[in-house]
Amino acid sequence: QVQLVESGGGLVQAGGSLRLSCTASRIMFVISDMGWYRQAPGKQRELVASITRAGNTNYPDSVKGRFTISRDNAKNTVYLQMNSLKLEDTAVYYCNTDPVFSTYWGQGTQVTVSS
Fold it and tell me: Which residues contact 59 (CB under 8 A, 6 or more apart)?
């Protein structure tokens, strides 16, 4: 059974930090790399962090140096530590496999950065 449950979002001032968590199905964790995605109003969903099963990470320039993805394979959980948050980080954040191979998405968690 496919399962993705995100949590940890909230309202934070610019420059602040948040830590997101996502618990996934065991099968997803075992067979796939994982990623954090975000979708801002009126924009397409984008990948903001990815981590391989071996723990190698990758980030786009927009978040590099500010976001850190990690995974706990024993807990089937992937985390996203977000520091130095900017107004443009406001979005709904989702986790999923990387690449995405299913149409299933969790409910996401809202991150709102205020000035």
Answer: 48, 49, 50, 67, 69
pLDDT, tens digit (0-9, with 9 covering 90-100), for 51-98: 999 999 999 999 999 999 999 999 999 999 999 999 999 999 999 999
Residue corresponding to tokens 């500010």: 66
CA distance linking residue 101 with residue 93, whole number of Å: 18
DSSP letter string over 38-54? EE-TTS--EEEEEE-TT
Specify the DSSP class assigned to residue 15: T
For 98, the 3-state DSSP assignment is strand
- Tally of CB atoms within 10 A around 97: 20
Please state the separation of Cα 80 from the chain's center in Å. Answer: 5
Q: Determine contact, residues 38/94, Cβ cutoff 8 Å.
A: yes
DSSP lists the bridge partners of residue 67 as 82
